[in-house]
Amino acid sequence: MFERFTKDARDVVRGAAVHSERSGSQSVGAEHILLALLDGETGRASLALAALGLAERGESVRRALEAAHRRAGLTRAEADALAGLGIDVSAIVSRVEEVHGVGALSGDRGDKGWWSGRRSFSRGAKDVLERALRAALARRDRHVGDEHILLALTVLPGVPAEILADHGVTYESVTRVLNGQGESQAG
User: What InterPro entries does the database record attribute to this sequence (predicted)?
Assistant: First the structure.
């Protein structure tokens, strides 16, 4: 599948692996793919993110990703659903971090065991790449570009889609920009 990726899309995948390594994660996740997209400067996704006003608000996205990471990758909607059941995720995170240290719920701590030198991709990251391929096929594009990866992130349930939507980046807004139907500033 990787041979069908454009240079910009391959750069996103490589950048995601770098973000994963920097964060100490054992695998590349969808959140690392989002961070790599934010790093891009030349691809269609970068142009779309700039047109939607997200390029200059990358730090806000990074803070939101860090907050989700601290709550073990739960979306705010999931945390709200648990609150409806009387479970206060913030209180649990605070208590666990008080006892075990900041980031204890992130799942990537301590002994990492044997490592082959190559980062694996989480199910979420694999889903993003598979959905990107489907997006390219649906648009009848010959290659998978970084814009298809961005489109995939906007439609798959999870933290990256929630954060993008919070910043006004949705499937519809990205599609509108990619189709040249004007630039709209993200909210």
Answer: Clp_N_dom_sf, Clp_R_N
